[in-house]
Each structure stands twice: as structure tokens, then as C-alpha cells.
Amino acid sequence: MQSAIPDEPSPPDREGVRGFRLLGLVLLLAGLALHWRLATGPTGVASDGRLRDTDAYVRTLRIEELRRTGDWYASEIPQLNAPYGLSLHWTRPLDVLILGPALAAERLAGADPRRAIFWSGALSAPALHLAAAFAAAWAAAALWPGSAAWVAALMVLSSPPLLFGYGRAGFTDHHMLILLAGLLGLGAALRAALAPRDRARAAIGAGLAFALGVWVSPEALLVAGPVLAAFGIAWLLAADGAPFARQGLRMAGAMLVGLAVAVISEHPPARWLAGEYDKVSVQHVLMATLAATAFGVAVRLGMLHRTWRLAAGLGLGGASLAILLALYPGALSASVSEADAVFVALLPAINEMMPLAPTREGGLHDLLFWAGGAVAALLVLPAVLALWARDERRWPAGAVLALPFVATCAAALMHRRFAVDLAATSSVAGAGLVWFAERCRGPVRRRIAGWLAIALAVGTPYLALALPRPPQGDAAGLHGSASAALARWLATEGPAGGAPIPDANGPIILTDDLSITPKLAYRTPYRYVGAPYHRGGAAVADTIAMFGAQDEAAARAVLDRRGIAYILVSLPTRPDSILGPLHPESLGARLRRPGAADAPAWLRPLALPPELEGTYRLFAVLR
């Protein structure tokens, strides 16, 4: 077995180049076919016309609002958290990627603006998913030359959380853009680590890619932060640490420039110095500034004895962290720092925020489904680090890959949504299985080992199909036929039928089922109170207070303060309802009793279509 990848691989012959391109074409066609099948299948967006999650509807509303008003800095959705509007932590890069094609379709083909935005957004996830797969192959090619790199693309393409979840048509969300930026940054950082004296552009490119990722969402720091730390470790342990410090300086400097542009572009001038933990802001610029300063000092200390470098590194790192936390105490908590206390208590009940715990019922299924691709990385990384431990040219690249893998793996175990970030690091590392297989002696052994490596890297997540699944929630939620029928009725025959859809001034509905409010806000001419977003804790608190109130006056105070016109009650209560067990004398329990005979005199039951009876109840609030 070879001990290292050659510094300069010999140029591939014409047949090798043709085969390499053929593999890429096959993967592209396979990806297009898979996404086409999912989009046009019985539950696909092209068949039922429904987006696949709450964020998709809110993102679409947000882009429609941008097109309608042209207000670049507006971050509120007036149809949610009524009557105040819901402040969002999302940023504009994905909005621009979606709105651009929609405007082109509108102006060149005369497409309806709402439909153009709907379909541009619905197709953005699979397009970015395919781009991320090719970015994974490019990133892996820094370590694993030849066809082994395409295994990284195959792992990203076939990953269940991406293929059937965040990357599927109808998921109008930013996760795939974060993944793409992370893979581009990781691939460039690997190249910068392999040739620290030569590849300045790679380090700069990595910094710009990571800046884009943080602009989209600060969760991109799960990859960017450990990558920068890896260059710090290389500076500490290498015989001459100065080249690695320079690469770290270039990377952090590029991030600084990119993040400064992001803040200037994203926020009005009055808020350029306002820090936000869950959205790109000046605190992220400060992070990059502190990192660049630390690396700038480290360049001068690169030839010191390792003991002195360790002391200097601890001092620089400790001082940087102290400054950051002194100015922004919640910097390490990210989005949770911006969440209302009421919403923080609800986080464990949100599906994508649940931990991957194999000891829970169905937990092993979830672990394999969401993070099964990490198994290949867990096999490769220890072997690679052991193989390259004495290779001064190689072990820094191993550290650049290993540290973000550990960080994203830990994050995914705590909250399954971070399995998207884990896919970036595990795919690049997992492709190394095929590289190891290609080191086997004899063509037959190589072929067998290669197919086994591919099967392990790609197939491990699908072992979840043979395991018991966790209990499933109520089907009458976002994807249920009942909520779709409710949306149709409210949009056409409901109390405010015939009003514009959506209507920023429509009547306000309070409902106990937060999972349907984004969809209803998009489909109907009403505004809604509660929504499943961490900046909407006040609306969640009012929802709980109203339905849980045993005092009619306290419940009525909530309704009057928010100007609520209607109350929508789900029958039966969803198992994951925010209300929890209701007291028998609470207003929520009274409204669920047969015939709602115990409802207050100031609530008037409204008739619903037969298909909605037994699933929902609607009351008008009398003034």
C-alpha cells in the first residue's frame, strides 16, 4: 500500500480523461432522473402542487414580498405573528437565486409571478443538490485522485436526508446552498493545506466560500471554524509553521472581506454595527478579524520552538475568545441565543431539532438514515491520519478534514438537521475507502474491494430500511389531505373568501396547530398568530395562554390585543401539539367538547364543509 498520494500526479491519458468525464455525465443523468421521479411521483410537488415543509412556504412568501415591494431590507412576514409580523433570520442570497429565474420566466415567457416564484423555488433545492454533488467530487479530488473522488459525489447524491429531504423538489430552503458553500470551502482548504507555500489562491477561495456559507446561515461555521483551527494546529506542530499561518491569514482575511460585504449588503447602514447571533452580522466580521489577527501574529512566530508556539497559540486563542464573548456573550449558542424562552422549551419537540439517539424507540433507524454516511468516514479518517502521521506534507490536510468532521458529527448527534453539514465532510472522507481499495494488489482484489467500498459508503444509510421506524405523528398536518382541503375552503368559500392571496391585511386566525400556519398563510387570504420559528416565541406564548386559559377574561384579553377574528381548533389534538395536556376547564378543552356546547358566549361556531367536520372547528370572535 502506498504511503501517500503523489505530489504531482502524472497527467491522465486521453482515455482516462474520457472515462472521468463519462462518470460525471452518468452521475448527472442519474441525479436528474432521481429528482424527476421524486418530483412527479404521487407525493411529488409536480403531482400535488404542495411544497414539502413549512420553511418552503414562508420562503416563497418572503420572495413574493420582495418582488412586490422591492424592500431589500424587509425581514418580516406580515401574514405570521399577526398583527405584528414575523421577523426572520434568513438572508438574501437564496432569495436572489430563486427570484432571478422567476423574473426571467415572467418577463420572457409571460409567466404568472406567483407561479414563477413557486416553481423557481421548488426546483432550487434539486439544482443545488446536484451542484453540491459535483462540488463534493471536486473537493475529494484534492485527496483521492482518479475515480475515487466520484464516490463523494455519489454519497451526496444518494444521501437520504438530501435526496428525500432537503434536496428534493419542493424544499424551497437554504440547506443545499449551505452544503454547496461548505464543500467548495473544504475542497479549497484541502488544496491550501497540501501546498501551503504555493496555493495562496486556494486559501483565499476557501475563505470566500466560507463567507458565502455564513452569509446564508451561521451554521456554516460548523465547517469553517474547525478548518481554520486545523491550520492553527498545523502552524503549531509543523517544523516551520509560518506557511500554514499565512494560509490561515489568507483564509481568515478573505472571510473578513466576504463577511463585510455580506453585512453591508444584508443590513441597512443603521444596523451595520448591530450584532445578531442567528444572522450574518458584525459579530461574524469580528470573528474573522480576530482569526486574521491571530494568524498574522502567528506568521511571525512560525520558527519558534513548539513549546513557545503552544504558549503563544493558547494566548492568542484565549484572548480572541475572551474578546468575542465579552462583546457577544451568546456567540457560541448561535440561533438559540435569539430564541424566545418559550420557543427554546419547544425545540426538543421539533423534528429536525431532535437528537440522533440510538437508545430511543426507532433511534437506530434515525441514526443510520440521517448520519449513516459517516460510517465510511469513521473507517477512513483514523487510517489516513495514521498513514500520514509522519508525512509532513499530508497530515495537515488530514487535520483539515478530520476536525470539521468531528464537529459536524457531534452537531448532528445533538440536532439531526446538521446532518446536512455532516454530509459535506463525511462524503469527502468516505471517498477514501475507494482510494484504499485501489491500493490492493491484483486486479480482482482491487475490483472486489472497490465495489465493497462503494457499497459501504453509499449503502449504509439504507440499512435503516430494515429497522423499525420511530412512531409517526398525526397525518393531518402539513402534508395531510385535511389541511389541503382546509386551505382550499378558506381561500374560496371561507369567511373572507375572494380577498387577495396572500393578504397582508386579512383577518387574523389563531390556531393550535403551528405546523399548518405557514401553508395557510401562503394559500389563504388570512393572517395567523403562531408559527414554528424561534423568533416567534411571543406568538407561541399567546397561543398557549389563550387555549390554556381557565379564565375567560384572560383568554379574551389575548384575542383583543392581537385583533383575532377567528379561532381554528384541530380535532383531535396533534400528538406533538405545543399545548401539551390541557386542563379540563381550559378554553382549549372546552372548544373540543362535542358540539362545542361549552364555548363562551362571545364565540360563534361556523359551519365547515363535510370533509372538514371531525378534523377542525372554526369559531368567529364576536365583538
Topology (SSEs and partners):
Elements (H helix, E strand, L loop, with lengths): L13 H27 L4 H4 L5 H16 L6 E2 L8 E2 L5 H17 L3 H28 L8 H10 L1 H7 L8 H20 L5 H17 L4 H17 L4 H25 L15 H19 L5 H22 L7 H4 L2 H6 L16 H9 L2 H15 L6 H20 L4 H12 L1 H6 L5 H17 L21 H12 L15 E4 L5 H7 L3 E2 L8 H12 L3 H11 L1 E7 L16 H6 L10 E4 L9 E6 L2
Parallel strand pairs: 3-4, 3-5
Antiparallel strand pairs: 1-2, 5-7, 6-7
Task: Give a description of the structure.
The protein is mainly α and about 625 residues long. It folds into two domains: about 15-40 and about 90-465, no CATH class; about 480-620, 3-Layer(aba) Sandwich (Rossmann fold). It contains 26 helices and seven strands. It has helices at about 15-40, 45-50, 55-70, 95-110, 115-140, 150-160, 160-165, 175-195, 200-215, 220-235, 240-265, 280-300, 305-325, 335-340, 340-345, 365-370, 375-390, 395-415, 420-430, 430-435, 445-460, 480-490, 515-525, 535-550, 550-560, 585-590, and strands at about 75, 85, 510, 525-530, 565-570, 605, 615-620. The strands form two sheets. A five-stranded mixed sheet has the order 4-3-5-7-6, sandwiched between helices. Strand 1 (about 75) and strand 2 form a beta hairpin. Helix 3 packs parallel to helix 23 (about 515-525), helix 4 (about 95-110) packs across helix 5 (about 115-140) and helix 24 runs antiparallel to helix 25. The radius of gyration is 26 Å and the shape is globular. Residues about 1-15 and about 475-480 have low confidence and may be disordered. It comes from Caldovatus aquaticus. This is Glycosyltransferase RgtA/B/C/D-like domain-containing protein. Keywords: Membrane, Transmembrane, Transmembrane helix.
